[in-house]
Design goal:
alpha+beta, five-stranded mixed β-sheet, 645 residues, Ribosomal Protein S5, domain 2, nine-stranded mixed β-sheet
Length: 645
């Protein structure tokens, strides 16, 4: 018997009109409704302005974070069309802002190249905005229209005269507040100035000559940044390598058009061990790469092997260099601009156009081969680095084989100093990495043996930023961590085999503890990036002081908190203040209640918002160059006392 609750007939078929589908399923269009999705809305509007720049009609884009929570994006392009659309019978600007898949990016003559492939960017932002206002500067007039949650408030009207052209869009994201009868969309309305300016700097690099500025009017004095690079992606590579030691200068630059596809590549090797290759299609960063990056890497490996054979650096009996060998220490930007890009999803994480791979391959092969022929000393330096990388790779392979042999018996081969937990569900397990036997002893005594494991580390681990992989694998402390984690190492890492889903760095709340923590994070970022990407790495927050007044004990975690507590308690009472020099000074009970008890502790989860910024800071703090690090420390020394970590 059918009831009202399980009936499935024509009444259950819903038809969502206008932009209602976007509001119902926002994640389909902007990825998420958290901070990432919030910023994606700004990118969509700015991408439209950049498309005008690609078409040759715009050279200045201004972004303003307003004090009332709105964002203004202003460009000096042609402006949205304001004429009546022949089919919809409404102004074209209204059509673009209220109808999905309406725009000049579907094979018309409006845009030859566009990052906004799906034609949904502006309309999606409109749908997800509590309020949006558009001003179009065109034909000597200023046209204006406003919308509320995607719905038109009034017809397009003329509000003034002007000599300029372009578009200004101001939108207020629809944030959940609890005060509005509408449920809201976004979990937060707090735009991050640094996240946005990093993206705009990237866009300025990718479009030489364009000027992008951002102002933050939420603070006094206003923050202002402007980006303009005539060198384009060559300047981008130089920027990425600014705290590294390049093997040659300037970067190799490859530029041309093949079958209607514009291809730009800039590359330069440094004396480090890490690759930084960023791929873009129509100004959109494709973090998962795609056919353009594959074509570049294939050509790079082939050209270097061919030159190595021809020059005699690679002997007849030598094996060919692998892709990993030739890309060690490489910094590269691969940017293509094409008329019909095929991305995976609206967030455009990977380029799928099969015809792009051979085009990039051919152009890189021709230009790089000529560069090596014309610069034999540079070519020799690069080849010698690649050959050295191959030797280190073979040594690392042997070290990995030895590690695998050691872990063949699984539990029998776990590090002897590991105090494991009894739980076997990784999602419920956590491992604390602690410095020294003293702290390890307190942690082992104070932990919950059911789900908490303790791995004491002996002092400061190896700085992997300046160390080849085979030496990393030979380090005993690193071997202990790899074995204890259980997921493998490097490219063989498998997160499904991890034994703990919370890996907690628990170091002393002092400068030495901070140094050990950054060494651990450098190791994770360079050799276990998936641990950070998947949210498995945490930082414990042990107290710095214990303040006792009578029978009351309070723990504080920074000097600033200590001063605030002393003011609260009253200095006349002269409370007893104990500073913990290390975790080992705390009893097992104190360590449990302040740092390890899930019901009372505070921990930071480590994440990477921006890979470029992360690479930059790890290179700066842990690399070879002293002066940039010294300058950073001097600039930030005043902040250290106020940090809680």
């Amino acid at each position: 018997m059918q009831t009202e609750t399980n009936r499935y007939d024509e009444n259950q078929i819903q038809v969502l009109e206008g932009l209602e589908a976007v509001r119902r399923r926002p994640g389909m269009y902007i990825g998420s409704t958290d901070e990432r999705g919030l910023h994606h809305c700004v990118y969509e509007i700015v991408d439209n302005a950049v498309d005008e720049a690609l078409a040759g009609f715009c050279d200045h884009i201004e972004v303003t974070l307003n004090a009332d929570g709105s964002v203004t994006v202003k460009d000096n392009g042609r402006g949205f069309p304001v004429g009546i659309h022949p089919k919809i019978h409404r102004p074209a600007v209204e059509v673009c802002l209220t109808i999905l898949h309406a725009g000049g990016k579907f094979g018309g003559e409006g845009y030859k190249v566009s990052g906004g492939l799906h034609g949904v960017g502006a309309s999606v932002v409109n749908a997800l905005s509590r309020h949006l206002q558009v001003n179009v500067y065109q034909n000597g007039k200023i046209y204006q229209q406003e919308y509320e949650r995607g719905k038109v408030l009034y017809d397009l009207k003329t509000v003034g005269e002007t000599e300029r052209t372009g578009t200004t869009i101001r939108f207020w994201p629809d944030v959940k507040t609890g005060e509005d009868p509408e449920p809201g969309i976004f979990e937060t309305g707090a735009f991050d100035f640094d996240v946005l300016r990093t993206r705009f700097r990237e866009m300025a690099f990718l479009n030489k000559g364009i000027r992008i500025s951002i102002e933050d009017h939420r603070v006094e004095p206003h923050l202002t940044k402007e980006y303009h690079y005539e060198g384009g992606i060559r300047s981008f590579v130089e920027y990425l390598n600014k705290n590294k030691t390049p093997l040659f200068n300037p970067p190799v630059y490859i530029d041309g058009v093949r079958d209607g596809t514009a291809i730009e590549v800039a590359l330069q090797w440094n004396d480090g061990y890490n690759e930084m290759a960023l791929a873009f299609a129509n100004n959109i960063h494709t973090p998962e790469g795609g056919t353009h990056l594959t074509g570049f890497r294939t050509a790079l490996t082939r050209v270097i092997n061919d030159y190595g054979r021809k020059s005699g650096i690679l002997k007849a009996n030598d094996q060919n260099l692998t892709g990993d060998d030739v890309r060690e220490g490489l910094t590269a930007i691969v940017s293509v601009k094409l008329t019909e890009p095929q991305f995976e999803g609206q967030t455009k994480s990977k380029l799928g156009n099969s015809e792009v791979r051979p085009l990039v391959d051919a152009m890189v092969s021709e230009t790089l081969s000529s560069f090596f022929e014309e610069n034999p000393q540079v070519a020799k330096t690069v080849l010698e680095k690649c050959v050295s990388a191959a030797r280190a790779r073979e040594a690392a392979r042997k070290a990995r084989d030895a590690t695998r042999r050691k872990t063949a018996l699984e539990s029998a081969s776990l590090p002897g100093k590991l105090a494991d937990c009894s739980e076997r569900d990784p999602a419920k397990c956590e491992i604390f990495l602690v410095e020294g036997d003293s702290a390890g002893g307190s942690a082992k005594s104070g932990r919950d043996r059911h789900f908490q494991a303790i791995l004491p580390l002996r002092g400061k681990i190896l700085n992997v930023e300046k160390t080849p992989e085979h030496r990393v694998l030979a380090n005993q402390e690193i071997q202990a961590m790899i074995t204890a984690f259980g997921g493998g190492f490097g490219k063989e890492f498998n997160p499904e085999k991890l034994r703990y889903h919370r890996i907690v760095c628990m170091t002393d709340a002092d400068v030495d503890g901070s140094h050990i923590r950054i060494l651990l994070l450098t190791f994770f970022y360079r050799h276990f990036p998936r641990l950070i990407e998947d949210g498995y790495v945490y930082i414990a927050q042990p107290p710095l002081y214990k303040v006792t007044k009578g029978k009351t004990q309070r723990y504080v975690y920074s000097d600033a908190q200590l001063q605030a507590l002393l003011d609260e308690l009253g200095r006349d009472a002269k409370p007893d203040v104990q500073r913990y020099k290390g975790l080992g000074e705390m009893s097992a009970e104190q360590l449990w209640e302040t740092t390890m008890d899930p019901s009372r502790r505070s921990m930071y989860r480590v994440s990477v918002k921006d890979a470029i910024a992360a690479d930059e800071i790890f290179t700066l703090l842990m690399g070879d160059q002293v002066e940039p690090r010294k300058e950073f420390i001097e600039q930030n020394a005043k902040l250290v006392a106020d940090l809680d970590i």
